[in-house]
User: What shape does this take?
Amino acid sequence: MRVRDIDKEKLVIKTAIDQIVQEGFQGFSMNKLAKACSISVGTLYIYYADKDDLIQKIGASMALKFFKSTIKDFSPDMSFEEGLWKQWENRASFTMKYPKEVAFFEIIKHSPHGEIILDSIEEFADFRTIMKDFINNALRNKELLPMSFEAFWCVAYGPLYTMLNMHTEGKSMGGKPFVLTKEIMKEAFKSTVKGLKP
Assistant: This one.
């Protein structure tokens, strides 16, 4: 039996992420991946059962990394404003540090693999519980307007992700150069919180 090579495995993961971000699922294949990594297709099957297994394992690894970073120094018992700001900081920090991985996960999330990946991660249930507790505490403390989860998500995180997309692209509306700063984030955050509070 052939032994796993950690460096080779890292190269496979990085290259698979690059290829899926650049070409989507349609342009992605195990043969193409093996060729780009200068390894045999057989080597890929040491690490993964097939293409779906590869996509799901890399997706699960990315998701876990993201969830862990999102709840760093965060508690559902924080005041709504403090907790939401910590979420913004954590999400922004992760997206700026790993833009390609985030782009990869966005593609995966909206594919048939999305639910399979999230269901396979035990910690995701914990993440959902933490976020639900945070929202319920804010409602109970009358710090948050009652609204559907979808409406909450769009108002609470939509502005942040729009700015992060502009930051990743390096430009805002009309092609104007753009870099997301803490000051701009705070400016958008103040309006966001105003729209969410009773």
